[in-house]
């Protein structure tokens, strides 16, 4: 017995043809850009623009076992130089309490920074990682000997500066050893910097020493091959709540080929919007001393709300809460478009075309069912 498939209406057939054409045209664009990273914003074949979203990255800074907010440029290994440590805030709450707050608000990719190598700070950092496993990165004194232990204790990534940028120079062999040990996908490079002769020089050893490596296009492109993300403190404004380093944010947004987080000087909601504009929506943001949970005037809840507003899908009829930018894949976008989703605002999804091409057949076979 021969089954006969019911004929579809002309409208349905045209819809199916249109969707197939749009999907295949997008896939053709992927093939044409084989191996290249997409820019932050572009227009799909369907005519809808893809716009990046900025992520708020929370922080827990630990000094001598306590959660503190310190003016970074005053941090020293000793007090012999006569410079007094300037502390904006010191909390009686344990690090785990802040980690639990971030966990409840579903904030990921935040960082725990140990501002000292003392055992109390290390224990406090572990406490935060245990409270929110997989949700926080950790930095401060990370090296080949301890990197794996922090990952095993729950850190999503390890953050490295001084171990790689030592004695004023970049030690590429150490960097390669770290990548071999933990994997590129678990490594964040801290490129915190200060202005020197009109350029941004990476600073190390608690931001006390200038290196001969500058944050610029060649450096960012070179180091992107060894890291999953960059973390950049604008040290000249960090902890002072006097406004952001807009020039630095613009540089990062223009040249960083991988996710990058900026920290330094945020004091108002307007500063968040300035980072979004200056960084072309490609630069994530950390807020510290200005937050009310750290003794400042900027409501933490307002920042979280702003973050969530940046990171959702808008559908014709309802809202879809989107996944983390680092988890969003191009196939998600194609599937949404196939069912008529009007994706006006989408996470910043930077991907390599080869990673999605094997899914072409799945997308093609799946789409007509919705026509």
Automatic annotation (TrEMBL):
UniProt cofactor(s): Na(+)
Keywords in alphabetical order, please.
Answer: Amino-acid biosynthesis, Chloroplast, Histidine biosynthesis, Isomerase, Plastid, Sodium
Provide the top EC class: isomerase
Q: What is its main location?
A: plastid
Whether Hydrolase counts among this entry's keywords is: no
Q: InterPro entries per the record?
A: Aldolase_TIM (IPR013785), His6/HISN3 (IPR011858), His_biosynth (IPR006062), Isoase_HisA-like (IPR044524), RibuloseP-bd_barrel (IPR011060)
Give me the Gene Ontology terms describing cellular component.
chloroplast
Molecular functions (GO terms)? 1-(5-phosphoribosyl)-5-[(5-phosphoribosylamino)methylideneamino]imidazole-4-carboxamide isomerase activity
Its protein name is 1-(5-phosphoribosyl)-5-[(5-phosphoribosylamino)methylideneamino] imidazole-4-carboxamide isomerase HISN3, chloroplastic
Organism of derivation: Oryza sativa subsp. japonica (Rice)
């Amino acid at each position: 017995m021969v089954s006969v498939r019911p004929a579809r209406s002309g409208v349905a057939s045209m819809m199916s043809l249109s969707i197939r054409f749009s999907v295949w045209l997008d896939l053709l664009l992927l093939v044409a850009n084989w191996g290249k990273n997409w820019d932050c914003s572009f227009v799909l074949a369907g005519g809808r623009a893809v716009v990046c979203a900025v992520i708020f990255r929370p922080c827990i800074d630990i000094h001598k076992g306590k959660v503190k907010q310190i003016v970074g440029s005053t941090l020293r290994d000793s007090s012999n130089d006569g410079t007094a440590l300037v502390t904006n805030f010191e909390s009686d709450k344990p690090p785990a309490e802040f980690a639990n707050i971030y966990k409840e608000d579903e904030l990921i990719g935040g960082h725990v920074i140990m501002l000292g190598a003392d055992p109390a700070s290390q224990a406090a950092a572990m406490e935060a990682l245990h409270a929110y496993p997989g949700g926080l990165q950790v930095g401060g004194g990370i090296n080949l000997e301890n990197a794996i232990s922090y990952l095993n204790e729950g850190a999503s990534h390890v953050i490295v500066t001084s171990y790689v940028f030592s004695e004023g120079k970049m030690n590429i062999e150490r960097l390669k050893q770290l990548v071999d040990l933990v994997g590129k996908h678990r490594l964040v490079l801290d490129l915190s910097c200060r202005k020197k002769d009109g350029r941004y020089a990476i600073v190390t050893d608690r931001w006390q020493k200038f290196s001969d490596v500058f944050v610029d296009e060649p450096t960012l492109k070179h180091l992107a091959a060894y890291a999953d993300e960059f973390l950049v403190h604008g040290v000249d404004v960090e902890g002072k709540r006097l406004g952001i380093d807009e020039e630095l944010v613009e540089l990062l947004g223009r040249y960083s080929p991988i996710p990058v987080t900026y920290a330094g000087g945020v004091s108002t909601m307007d500063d968040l919007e300035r980072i979004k504009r200056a960084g072309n929506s490609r630069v994530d943001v950390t807020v510290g001393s200005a937050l009310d949970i750290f003794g400042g005037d900027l409501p933490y809840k307002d920042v979280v709300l702003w973050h969530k507003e940046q990171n959702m899908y808008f559908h014709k009829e309802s809202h879809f809460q989107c996944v983390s930018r680092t988890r969003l894949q191009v196939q998600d976008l194609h599937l949404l478009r196939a069912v008529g989703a009007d994706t006006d605002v989408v996470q910043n999804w930077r991907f390599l075309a080869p990673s999605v091409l094997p899914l072409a057949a799945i997308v093609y076979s799946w789409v007509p069912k919705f026509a």
